[in-house]
Amino acid sequence: GHWSLIVIFHNPKNHNYYGKIIDSRKKGKTSKSYCPQQKGFWECGYYVMKVMHDIVISCREKIILHCENPLTSHQIDQFVEDTLKDFMVTL
Q: Where does the Ubiquitin-like protease family profile domain lie (predicted)?
């Protein structure tokens, strides 16, 4: 399988909803498609978790979407380490 994420944003000013598809699979996508594109086949779950973390935990308003550059192994490792630290502190 493959993990992807659909994010729905609500604009309280005009009461409209907007959606973004977070799909890191490279197949036929360009830098304007969705989000950073993964190099291999196993990273998709980490990409989904990172975006969820950026939205929910960090409350970041600006998420890097229109970018083709894959996450580095260091970025994935750092994300996992930081997330586990946050989780352990919360417990």
A: 1-55
